Amino acid sequence: MAWRRAVFALFAVAAGTNVPTPLLLVYQDRLDLSPEVLTALFGSYAAGLVPALFLAGPLSDRFGRRRVALPGILLSAAVSLAFAAAGDALALLFVARFVQGVVSGAVFGVVSAWVGELSHASGEGAGGRRAAFAMTAGFSLGPLTSGLLGQYAPAPTVLPYLVHVVLALAGLAAAAGLPETVAVASRGGGDHGGPEFPPAPLVRPGDGWLAATVLAPVAVCVYAFPSTMISAVPLLVELPAAGVAVTGVLAGGTLGAGTLVAGLQRRLGPWTAVVAAASGAVGFTAAATYALTTALPWLFLAAVALGSGGGLALAAGLTLTARLSAPTRRGELTSLFLACAYLGFAAPFLAAVTARASAPAVPLVAGAVLTGLLAVRLLPVARTGRA
Asked: What is the pTM of this model?
């Protein structure tokens, strides 16, 4: 089936985005970097991704998914080569991480929309679940692999990136033969001598408030949950021995939990977003408890809960995005949703700054309170069955 190849391509690009995450501890040791610099390096990815999302979605709606997605997948491999060549040059690492965000922005929204369009025969919600599975699986297996290679294999800042280059090229080969799902020739009637029609609204009339108060905050949770767990927590609290490997396992476990729970969206239905926010509250509470007690069960509970919350938020958000968008602007709204999601990458930096001014547990407790309030806010929406 064509959607399977699109899912694999999405997975291949997603796998590269978190390859640098466990290696932050290697860079910290080699370059003597502070937690603020490390979280800024991690978050510079979002600075490149968000504007790229705003550009790539509308471009793919106008010119087709293939013309945007295929170059982006190829550039994903090129960015991993740049990371491998950067070595200990901090400026080059920032540039590579920023460009990695640009490349991901050119791929995620577009290929997620492509997966959805190739999944129409499977019913509503199938495309969102499949795209969420592809991204969260890539996000989890990428850092798990790089963490183990970074801890135990030679050339820890080179080999993990080369492994991803091979995977990205395989993803490109899988996507190269996919059918175009956008009727490019019908776009821009005025360019072909026909009448020009006003563009369809970005969301259905009357659903703007739902998009702003439900879709947007749920989107932020998608990456605020796991990025805090895999980027901020290892830098704020003391981990057991073999910290690079432990960080890789935590990242893989956190994002792997998001992969495993994505299928629950079919059963949870309109309650998916509520369960996502509640899982985040549990995860932040467990992480704060670990910071105070250093008891490992709390650390693993935090990883599972925050990862599950992020995965459910992604599945719920992509499904709602497909429901709210006009068909001719699906790529644009999907990209806008993911842009809001990547605002969550600011969470580790905010946590590091807050922790330095207070204590490691303080930003984690604040996260628990905020996400608990969001779960309460989503309850009436879930009862009406509109999200």
From this structure: 0.71
